[in-house]
Amino acid sequence: MKKNIIALLILLTLTTGVVFAQGSKESTTEGPKTYIMAANCEWPPLEFIDENGKITGFEMELLVELSTVTGYNFQPKNVAWDGIFAGLANGAYDGVASGVSVTEERKKALVFSDPILTVKQSIIVLEDNEVPPTSVNELKEKKVGVQIGTTGDILLQDSGVDITIMSYDSIALAIEDLINGNLDAVVLDSVVAGEYVITNKVFANKLKVSGTSDENLEPIAMCFKKENTELVAIVNKGLKQLQESGKMDELKAKWAIL
Q1: Intervals of CATH 3.40.190.10 along the chain
Q2: 119-217 CATH
Q3: What angle do CA 183, 3, 194 make, to 5 degrees?
Q4: What is the Cα–Cα distance from 65 to 129, expressed in whole angstroms?
């Protein structure tokens, strides 16, 4: 995802000595222990602020379900993406639940939960496209839009297929050009594809997903400080329960996670 490109200096942030407020709150007579989970709420459908000013989205509802099955309170805290890992390192919160891609670089400094979803690359075309491309190879000699620097961009660049790649500052601009007939297809994260094809009323009945690539898969997980293994175990146990009960699939369907 786009977030893969940000926060490359994560190891440096762990060496800072900035002092933050304590993250978790101990159990009291009023209720169970609370764990504070940071989220940059600008990434629908994973986490965002709705029209009523409420934090919501797939990952935020997942925290609610984790609270139910574990008996602990997982409380989201909306923070800026810039510095989100520094805040974790210095105790401002207990974990990060914000569409974080699991990368080898991040594994050096963080510990991840089991993946909550896997992002693939989806191909979006116009709904009336009668012979749509179903794979990257079928994008040969076509004009395809991507958001610059994202996994979709990298996938097409490395494919070896003769594709005219059109790079945009945002995927929304690529979608607009597709709607206007200036592109044959758009390649983007499967999570975001659902937002445009299923959820977004502006594009209702205008777009469809014609294919999905199994290359450049990106597991998405919650992350924690390396030494916080007890909390990781709690989260993983809860995620397993939600998966086995079918609740995880129910949430993915609700938020159009493809």
Answers
A1: 2-117+219-254, 119-217
A2: 3.40.190.10
A3: 50
A4: 39
Peptide bond into 45 cis (omega under 30): yes
The strand pair at 143-147 and 164-168 is best described as parallel
**Cα–Cα distance, 53 to 178 (Å, whole number):** 31
The residues that bridge with 211 in the sheet, in sequence order, are 123
pLDDT tens, N- to C-terminus, the chain (258 residues):
655 544 443 443 443 433 334 566 554 446 689 999 999 998 889 999 999 999 999 999 999 999 999 999 999 999 998 899 999 999 999 999 999 989 898 999 999 999 999 999 999 999 999 999 999 999 999 999 999 988 899 899 999 999 999 999 988 899 999 999 999 999 999 988 988 898 888 888 899 999 998 887 889 999 999 999 999 999 999 999 999 999 999 999 999 887
CATH topology of domain 2-117+219-254: D-Maltodextrin-Binding Protein; domain 2 (3.40.190)
Q: Contact 146/157 with Cβ under 8 angstroms?
A: no
Angle formed at CA 102 by CA 96 and CA 103, multiple of 5 degrees: 125
Beta-bridge partners for 208: 125
